[in-house]
Amino acid sequence: MKVKYEFVNETVEVEVDKQWATVIAELDRRDYNNDKKETRRHTTLDNGFDDGEWLAVEDKGLTALFEDTEQLDRLASAMTHLNEKQRELVKAIFFDGVKASEYADFKGISKAAVSQQLSTVRKKIKKYF
Questions:
Q1: How far apart are CA 124 and CA 121, in angstroms?
Q2: Cα separation values, 98 from 15, 21, 77, 93, Å
């Protein structure tokens, strides 16, 4: 069985046993999948957003809770289960309208940390709805 090797300036075919051809094909498949896996998750940090706002979690469902007065009572009850830092974050982001990037700068933490904290808060609050 012939196996093709493509180089920059030429293509070479080598005759190998069927067993080795199977092994080479499997290794090529694994290399291809590994390369694909490594490149699909990368994004540049310079993607057109200067303030890094794209790192923050924006949950439309959580924001909708603040628009219904009946839900606000349930939210107030759920907020008692958050720690002080988390309550402060919710108040700043959802009630005072502070952007996640501004909150991160004010607290001296990364925007990714704010995103993670918002995600944790969302999970805790959703337990009560």
A1: 5
A2: 67, 60, 23, 5
Distance of alpha carbon 65 from alpha carbon 73, whole angstroms: 10
Q: Whose CA is closest to 89, among 49, 48, 41, 57?
A: 57
Which ranges constitute the DSSP H helices of 41-110?
60-65, 69-79, 84-90, 100-107
pLDDT, tens digit (0-9, with 9 covering 90-100), for 17-70: 888 888 888 988 888 888 776 665 555 555 555 555 555 555 555 556 556 677
- Spatial separation of the C-alpha atoms in residues 3 and 18, rounded to whole Å: 10
Q: Which residues contact 81 (CB under 8 A, 6 or more apart)?
A: 124, 127, 128
**pTM of the full structure:** 0.46
